[in-house]
Amino acid sequence: MLLHVVLYLALFSNYGNAEDPVGHLKPLGEQSLPTVPIDEFTIDNAPHPYDFYENYVKPSKAAIFRGAMLDTSGFKLWTDEYIKENYGTMEVRVEGKKEKNSMIPVGEKYLGRDTISHFVDNYHLPNTSMYMVSELPEVMFKEVGVLPSLGACGEMARRFVEIDIWWNGGGGRSVIHKDAFNQINCLYRGTKNWKLYEYKYEKWIHKHWEPENEVGGYSEVDVDAVNLYKHPNIVKIPWSNFSINAGDCLFLPKSYYHQVLSKGEQNLAVSVLFSRLDGIEHIDVSDCTDQTDYKTPKPLSDLDVMWKWQGTGMMSMGRGDIESSYRPSLLHSAEDFEGGVTADAIAEMWGSEGEDDGKIRSGSYDRAIAAIDSDGDGKLTADEITSATWAQLREFGSEVEPHEPSNSYLFEYSLISYDSVVEILRMAIKKKEVLTRELWVKLYTRMLKGTPQFANQIFNGLVDSEKINEVKTADITEDVIKRALKEWLAYWVPQYSPTDVRPDTGYKIGFEYGDEEPEPEPEEEYDDEEEEEEQHVKEEL
Description:
CATH topology of the largest domain: Jelly Rolls
Largest sheet: 10 strands, mixed
Number of strands: 18
Mean pLDDT: 86
């Protein structure tokens, strides 16, 4: 018996052999010691906005601000009960707790989209994998404090791009990844452990392939069990390791690689994303005076944000920087087109017909021009571009920039493949003479982890009615299947090119792949109850 145990440990243990590199197949961080210190401040000695830019933002140097949010409304008021009562009808985007390695959870109605009320009722349950990773609804801005080093005055306070909320029941963890923008991440509940890797070491990060136009990115290193034979360079990188507690804020510079582990019974953070500010030698702080309050966080509602989430409909998470991208690109184009920037010029600048990045393209270049064209001549002059408001440029950006499927109610079409739906349908056709609506909803929701709404949509297509509740499987022909799955066809069937339009919305959609096909994501680990439930559904066939 003892021999069997020894052989089992030798063959299957994650601890590797004596000859293995230190930390092989161990969690991230056990391969080398952290050697990069992080400067820390309190709200009382936090740097002036000018000094913060010069010493931290411009050189991309991280910093911690201990206790900076302790006196803010959000820190004092945001209990589950308060948030549910005041903001429960707002919608948010949800993911699995394990980034890149979890199935997208089903919210109250949609896959990957939930109401705050439903989320509050479910995020803490033992078997949930729900993690709120969303734009913060604008109605909550009034209770979010902005670090004075960023928001008291000066140019940085006028360059907020997006506000995000991160909330889970503890135990969430990310892959090693980078974000496009500078950000201040403030924790309102729980504890987060951060591991940071400077962008200059990206060549050793084992970055996963991404399209060239993506500014973000992530590492292929498995943070739960680092394979040092497959990813040996990770040990070459000097790194930082520290914890952020409730009330603390972290300045995370643009493109800084990081890995985060959420601890505690619950974990809630808000991130203020602001411009990259590339190439700006010194920021304008002419509005900073002796009367400016540099010690009190200003409510976010007192400041403007380029992209705001109203709590329903199409989300704008991940959109471009209005002042660093839209306006300068348009002004540069105006110099090249003497008569003004036309729709054809916009198409040349922003057009991506046939680009295979998996994003939805639904805009109109004519509507984009009209958003800024004050004199209605169908052309944009430098004066019109310079004087355009953020509201106008937001409308412009919504037309020219492709949308992430996860920002819309259409996300389920892109997550559950056409082939997988057809496979379940054919299994039902083979086993049953009659397929009922009730059984189909069970099959789709339990085996494919989709929503009843989309399951019923498919069944409506099978029977060409919302009122008929059963169909003879002999009548489910290939043409009927294509009719029922026309939305999935637009995403998944190779006969559709990336520039074909979706039958239901007119949206154009591409397909996501690289020069080489990426490795498939690891399959989700189901617990015994889920496996038993799936088996029961199969037995019903």
